[in-house]
Structure formats: C-alpha cells, structure tokens
Specification:
It is rod-shaped, with a radius of gyration of 63 Å. The strands form two sheets. Strands 1, 2, 5, 6 and 7 form a five-stranded antiparallel beta sheet that branches. The protein has helices at 2-10, 12-30, 48-60, 77-90, 102-144, 152-200, 206-231, 237-293, 306-313, 321-324, 344-360, 372-405, 413-431, 443-467; strands spanning 62-69, 96-100, 314-315, 318-319, 327-328, 331-338, 367-370. It has two domains: 2-42 and 379-467, no CATH class; 102-325, Helix Hairpins, CATH 1.10.287. It starts with a helix and ends with a helix. By secondary structure, it is an alpha+beta fold.
C-alpha cells in the first residue's frame, strides 16, 4: 500500500490519466454485460452432464417456444391463417431450427397436391393428344373404306326378267300339260282305231297285221310316257313359286339398299364428327400442355377456404391421425424449435416478431406464448427491472442517510465513489464475459453496503488528518 501511495504522490497526473483511461475501458465493458438464466448458471459448463445436454441441443434444437391457440372451433380458417402468418415470418429467422405445426402438414399436403396436379396435367395432355390421333385415324379409315352400294336398278331389271321368264315358263308348262292330255286322248283313240282295223283284216294279211301290232306297241309306249308326264303336272307350280321368291328377294334387296344408304350417311356423319372431335381434343391437349409447361409459375399457397382445409384435415368427418397430435385440451399447439447456439438477441427478435404479428391481428386474447425461452426472457426482464429498482432505491436511501447522519463536507462523495465501484465491477464482468445471474446480482447490495461503510471510514480519517495539519 505504501508503494502505491508513493507512486501516486510521485506521478499524480499520470495516475489520474491512467485511472481515467481504465475507467473509460471499464465503461465500455459495461456495454458487454449480459443477463444469463441458462443451464450454465445452475451447473458448470465443464461437467459431462452439461456437455451432453449441449450436444443434444446442437443436434436436435434447443428448448422450444410454444404457442397455444384458442378458437371457437377446432382448425378454423382464421386460426390456421394466423399460424401460417407466424410460421412464414419466423421460420427463416436466425435461431429458428424448425417449426412444428398443423400448417407444416397442410403445406406438405398442398405441395403433394401441386405435384400430383402437375403430373396429372402432363398425363391428360399426352392422353388427349393420343386420343385425338386415334380419332383422326379412325375418321380417315371410315372415309376411305366406304361400303359399295349395289346397283339396285340393274339388279331390279334382272330380277324382273327372271320373274317374267318364270311366269312364261309356268304358262308354257300349263300349255304343255294341256297338249299332253290332248295327245293322251288322241293316242287312246288311235289305239282303239288300230284294234278295230286289225279285227277287220283277213288273217292272210299277215304283214299288215304285224305292222298294226307294231303300231299298237308303240302307241302303248307313247300312252305310258304321256301318262307319266301328265302325272308331273305339279311342276307348273314351281315357276310361280320361284317368281314369288324372286319378288321377295327384290323387295329385301330394296330395303337392304335403303339401310346401306342410311348407314353410309351415318358413317359419313360419324367420320366428320370424329374428325372434329379429334381436332378439339388435340387443341385441349395442346392447351393443357401449355398450362403444364408454365405450371411452375404457380405456387401451392395456403388454402383460404374452410372447405378445402376440411378436405385436407378431416376424413369421413373424423380428424386425421396426423393432426391429432397438435390438439391439447381442445386447443391447437404450435412449436418453434430453436437452434442449440441461438443467442439471446435472436430469441428477443423471434419473440418480438411473434408478439407483433399477434398484436397486428388483434389476437392477443386467443394466443398464449410460452416455453422456456419466453420464461427466461421474462426472468431477464424482471431481473433488469429489479436491478434498476434496487440500484435507484439503494442510492436514494444512502443519500437520505448521508444527508441526515453524516456531518462532513462533501457528505455525498461516498455515493459517487460507490457508483464508480459498481461501474468498475460491472465493467470487469463485461470484459471477462461474466454474466449477470440471480446469484451475481446479490453482489451489488453487498458492494454498496460495504463500500459506503469503508468509504465513510476512509473519508472520516482523511478529515481528521487534514484537521491536524
């Protein structure tokens, strides 16, 4: 101590300058002081337990910020829209490791639907073009492979000629059988006459008798042939039946020709319709192809329709299993997992962003923001407020006590010096990265109490020594 006093007395100016520089440096150190409420305030960061927990947080994230949403109905569009707003504005902020909420699932489903729609457009476009090509080919085939309609006029003429010929043949047959009957009668008369003539001849006329016998034999044969032919009189019905059948064939051919003409007209109409349909389908396919090529201009957005949301969230009127985990006592839960090395400043920014969004949408009474980071933030704020109140209140009490009980000149000097001592202490803590905790804050009341006591003694002794000079 004597050496220090001697040094101060020998170099008073340099001592003051050095002291001033040190105080300025310590003032700068005050700005580096931080409030700490983490695990390192409760357990040494050199222990295996602390290191294991630190490695876990670096791999899987730190303690999360938890948001509880209360709404009139579960999974209503307004609540989900508020969740989506919070997630979209915070998930890319520094310090956010991941966001776990129903919005994440809904966006994933929306992305899946987007991909399926894109694939569906491609398939529909290709399918429509293929169908169009097939219809066009079918139309061409229908036009080139036309059925040949028979020449009805020539066919009718030929059939009519056959009918006429059959009619004439029938008439001829009738006349023929009439002649046969007449010949039969004549042959019978001739046979009678020959027998009469034979009987009238003399037996000596042998040659004449032999000739007559021969004629009778031939007459008998002719009669037999005419009788046989006369028995085939049913042949006269065949030409008439044939003519009738030919007439029916002619009528049928006329009807068939009419049907073929109608079918030909229908085939032409169908060919034109198929060609037109093919052109339209190709245009649709080309349009869908253009939509698919430019589909990346669209992005799967968050649904604004409650019906669409219900389709994604519910199945057959029941909540899907993947969404049940976000329901807590009839309220929706949203979790923001923080990175393991997130800073207090980043947590403050995230918390402020969340509160700002909730405030802008007038939903403060519908959303509860909680979690250890928020609790730590509240503790730090409370610690800072308590520290400021403690320092101000302690200074005011010391000022009152010194003014009333301390009867010396510059009676408030101990307060000034104690403030310098507090600044020096806080500055050293800032430079050494020693944060303020609930334990270290107890140093300041002790420092003020002991400092005031020691400085009053020092100042009193100074005044005594000075009075004896």
């Amino acid at each position: 101590m004597k050496y220090i006093i001697a040094l101060i007395l020998k170099y008073p100016i340099k001592t003051l300058i050095t002291t001033g520089i040190v105080l300025i440096g310590l003032f700068v150190g005050v700005t580096n002081i931080t409030l700490k409420t983490g695990n390192d305030t409760l357990i040494s960061d050199q222990t295996d337990l602390y290191q294991d927990n630190y490695d876990y947080q670096m791999a899987f994230g730190k303690d999360p910020i938890i948001l509880i949403f209360e709404a009139s109905s579960l999974y209503d569009q307004q609540t989900l829209a508020l969740m989506h707003d919070i997630q979209s504005k915070t998930e890319d902020m520094p310090g956010v490791y991941a966001v776990n909420s129903p919005v994440t699932l809904i966006e994933s489903i929306s992305q899946t639907m987007y991909s399926q729609t894109n694939t569906g457009l491609t398939q529909m476009s290709q399918g429509l073009i293929e169908v169009s090509n097939q219809l066009t080919n079918l139309s061409v085939q229908l036009q080139t492979n036309q059925m040949i309609t028979p020449d009805l006029e020539a066919l009718s003429t030929n059939l009519n000629q056959l009918i006429t010929a059959q009619t004439q043949l029938g008439t001829g047959l009738v006349n023929l059988f009439d002649v046969v009957d007449t010949l039969g009668t004549s042959v019978a008369s001739l046979s009678t006459d020959l027998n009469t003539l034979k009987a009238s001849l003399d037996e000596s006329m042998t040659e004449e008798i032999a000739l007559i016998d021969d004629m009778l034999v031939k007459t008998s044969q002719l009669d037999t042939s005419l009788t046989t032919l006369s028995n085939q009189s049913s042949l006269t019905d065949i030409p008439a039946q044939t003519a009738t059948a030919l007439g029916q064939i002619l009528t049928t051919l006329v009807d068939l020709s009419t049907l073929l003409e109608q079918q030909q007209t229908s085939m032409n109409t169908l060919s034109i319709a198929l060609s037109t349909m093919g052109i339209n389908l190709k245009q649709m396919g080309d349009s869908l192809g253009v939509i698919q090529q430019n589909f990346n201009a669209f992005e799967p957005g968050f649904p604004t329709s409650q019906t669409t949301l219900n389709t994604m969230i519910y199945q057959d009127g029941n909540l899907k299993d993947m969404f049940k985990g976000f329901v807590v006592d009839g309220k929706l839960r949203m979790v923001l997992v923080l990175e393991g090395d997130v800073t207090d400043e980043a947590i403050d920014d995230i918390s402020n962003a969340i509160n700002q969004i909730i405030s802008d949408q007038n939903a403060s009474d519908q959303v509860l923001v909680s979690g250890k980071p928020i609790l730590d933030r509240a503790i730090k704020s409370s610690m800072m407020d308590s520290m400021q109140f403690m320092m101000i209140f302690a200074v005011l009490i010391m000022v009152g006590i010194l003014l009333v009980t301390y009867r010396v000149k510059m009676r408030l000097l101990p307060i000034v010096m104690i403030l310098f001592a507090v600044i020096v202490t806080v500055g050293i803590m800032g430079w050494l990265n020693i944060g303020l905790t609930m334990v270290s804050m107890a140093v300041f009341p002790v420092l003020i109490g002991l400092g005031i006591d020691y400085f009053i003694q020092f100042q009193t002794r100074y005044e005594i020594e000075r009075s004896e000079l």
